[in-house]
Design brief:
This protein is α+β, with helices and mostly antiparallel strands. It has one domain (51-250). The chain is built from 7 helices and 8 strands, in the order ααββαββββαβαβαα. A hairpin with a 4-residue loop joins strand 4 (128-138) and strand 5 (143-151). Helix 1 crosses helix 2. The longest helix is centred in the first third of the chain and has 46 residues, at 6-51. It is globular, with a radius of gyration of 23 Å.
Length: 251
């Protein structure tokens, strides 16, 4: 056999590619359950960080933190169009219902994200301590995912976390910095007349002598105007989407 012929070289290269591709596919499939479990645990941790149950970088074991989530956090699927809480539904159910809704009416741009999973924590007296809402939207380079937790009064921010994005490290990527996120705590999502105003990332520094700044704004991220504008836009949009649900909780 002429091992230097073009046909042999091509056949050998194709054979190697096929074998490696098959090995990678098998490896990816075998690791997917582990990856899915890790992603779910990361999601749960971020819910608890936003709710103030744990600190960022908590070093306790995964088993301890998973038990804490089960003991303290209750999840529910919400229809953001009606504000209705759908009992007995899971995150997996919500994903399927979103697909069905989008397929049923392709012209409805909000259908693909209508059913969303919220979380609540309650105190020993049974009263709501925190309501954790999923937030997400476009930044500069990516979709930014996070959780915004409200206090039991449903107006003041208890905590926020931005845990998944592809923004520029050191610039827009600073949205995940716990020090910056800590500025959100205590801010109010409602202004005069209880109008929903969200939380605004200011261009520059917050001036605590200006009442609106003190109540509703946090410092801007240097060199990240588009990322900050994106956060302002999707935080208000998501809070607006959950208005019906929040009204249900108040009642």
């Amino acid at each position: 056999m002429n091992t230097s012929s073009n046909g042999y070289v091509m056949g050998f290269a194709i054979g190697v590619c096929v074998i490696i591709s098959a090995a990678l596919a098998v490896t990816a499939n075998s690791l997917k359950p582990i990856q899915d479990e890790a992603a779910e645990f990361d999601r749960q941790k971020n819910v608890m960080v936003a709710a103030g149950l744990v600190e960022t970088g908590d070093t306790r074991s995964a088993d301890v933190l998973k038990k804490l989530y089960v003991d303290r956090v209750q999840e529910a699927v919400v229809n953001t169009k009606s504000g209705e809480v759908l009992t007995g539904k899971s995150a997996k159910d919500a994903a399927q219902m979103n697909k069905d809704a989008a397929a049923a009416d392709p012209s409805d741009k909000g259908a693909a994200n209508r059913f969303r999973v919220v979380a609540t924590t309650k105190g020993a007296d049974g009263k709501i301590e925190a309501v954790v809402l999923p937030i997400s939207g476009k930044g500069l380079w990516s979709t930014i995912y996070g959780y915004l937790a409200l206090e039991g009064d449903l107006e003041k921010v208890r905590g926020v976390t931005f845990y998944k994005h592809g923004e520029t490290p050191g610039l827009g990527g600073e949205c995940e910095n716990p020090v910056w996120c800590a500025q959100w705590k205590g801010k109010s999502i409602r202004g005069e007349g209880k109008k929903l105003v969200g939380i605004e990332v200011k261009k520059g520094k917050v001036d605590p002598t200006i009442p609106y700044d003190k109540a509703h704004r946090v410092d801007g991220l240097s060199g990240s105007t588009i990322t900050c504008n994106g956060i302002n836009r999707f935080v208000l949009a998501d809070l607006t989407a959950f208005e019906g649900y929040l009204a249900t909780l108040k009642n």
